[in-house]
Amino acid sequence: MFRRRYRNLPPDQQTNWWVIVGVALLLLSLLLGLWLYHYFTALEKPYYEIKGYRVASHATFNRYLRQSGNGHTFGQLARFLEQAGVADVAAPESLLRQGTDWLDINEPAFALPPRDQWPNIVNTLKVIRDEVVPAIGPVDIVSAYRTHRYNHKAGGAGGSKHKQFCSVDLVPQSNIGRRELVQELRSLHTRLGPESHVGLGIYSGLRFHIDTCGFRSW
Question: Which of 50, 116, 161, 212 has its CA 20 to 30 A from that of 37?
Answer without folding.
Answer: 50
